[in-house]
Write a structure and sequence with these properties.
Blueprint: E1 17-20, E2 27-28, H1 30-43, H2 52-57, H3 63-74, H4 80-94, E3 99-100, H5 102-113, E4 117-121, H6 126-135, E5 144-146, H7 159-168, E6 175-179, H8 182-190, E7 194-197
Parallel strand pairs: 1-4, 1-6, 4-5, 6-7
Antiparallel strand pairs: 2-3
Helix pairs in contact: 1-4, 3-4
C-alpha cells in the first residue's frame, strides 16, 4: 500500500503514555494473518470459509479464543490449540515479508526520540509480536510490550491496555491508544483512555 495517502488524525495534545496495537497499526500484517488463518482452518477441516469480514470482526481477539468463537458460530468442534499451532506455524514462515505502516511507525519513532513513554498492546502471542516488531525494525523502541501471554481476557476487555499503562507507570486517563480494530477501540474506551483509529490496510 502507498501509505502517503493514509489519513491519520494524530493527537494534537501530549499524553503521558502512548499505547500501540501491533498488527494493522504498526505492521502491515493483517493480510498475512488472514491467509494464515484460512490455511489453518482448511487444514483442520472447518465447515466455514474464514472471510475477510469475519477476520476483521475478530481482530484483536486471542488465537484460541478466535477458534472457540468460530466453533460457537458454526457448530464446529475444532481444537483451539491445534488450529492455533497450524496458524502460527504458517505465519512464522512468512513473517519476514511484513512491512511497517510508515505514518504510524514514524510517529512512534518521533515519540521515542523525545523520550515519551510508549508501549505495544497486542492480542497475539509474545513470540509472534516480537517477530513482527523485529521484521519492521521496531523491537527495541518500546518500554513495554504486552501480549496475550500477559492477560486473561482478550480485547475488547480493557485488561491489555490497563496492563500496558501500569507497566509504563502512567494513569489510564493519561494514555492514548492507537488501534485499527473496533474491538481494540472498545477496549481503549473501557480502559478510560483516548484513542486513535488507524485505517484498515486492504485484504
Amino acid at each position: 500500500m502507498a501509505y502517503e495517502n493514509m489519513k491519520v488524525e494524530f493527537p494534537a495534545r501530549d499524553y503521558e503514555g502512548y499505547i500501540f496495537d501491533c498488527d494493522g497499526t504498526l505492521a502491515d500484517s493483517m493480510s498475512l494473518h488472514h491467509r494464515a488463518w484460512q490455511h489453518a482452518f482448511r487444514e483442520h477441516g472447518a465447515s466455514f470459509e474464514y472471510g475477510w469480514d469475519i477476520f476483521l470482526s475478530l481482530a484483536g481477539v486471542g488465537h484460541a479464543d478466535t477458534v472457540r468463537k468460530m466453533n460457537a458460530r458454526f457448530g464446529d468442534m475444532l481444537d483451539p490449540d491445534g488450529v492455533t499451532h497450524t496458524k502460527e506455524g504458517w505465519y512464522a514462515l512468512h513473517v519476514d515479508d511484513v512491512r511497517p505502516i510508515t505514518p504510524v511507525t514514524d510517529y512512534a519513532r518521533a515519540l521515542a526520540a523525545r523520550g515519551a513513554k510508549i508501549a505495544v498492546a497486542s492480542g497475539g502471542p509474545r513470540w509472534m509480536v516480537s517477530r513482527t516488531l523485529h521484521a519492521i525494525g521496531m523491537e527495541e523502541l518500546f518500554q513495554a510490550v504486552v501480549t496475550q501471554d500477559d492477560i486473561v481476557r482478550s480485547k475488547p476487555d480493557p485488561e491489555i491496555f490497563l496492563t500496558a499503562a501500569k507497566r509504563l507507570g502512567v494513569e489510564p486517563r493519561n494514555c492514548v491508544v492507537f488501534e485499527d480494530s473496533h474491538l481494540g477501540i472498545a477496549g481503549a474506551k473501557s480502559a478510560g483512555m483516548d484513542w486513535v483509529l488507524i485505517p484498515q490496510v486492504g485484504a
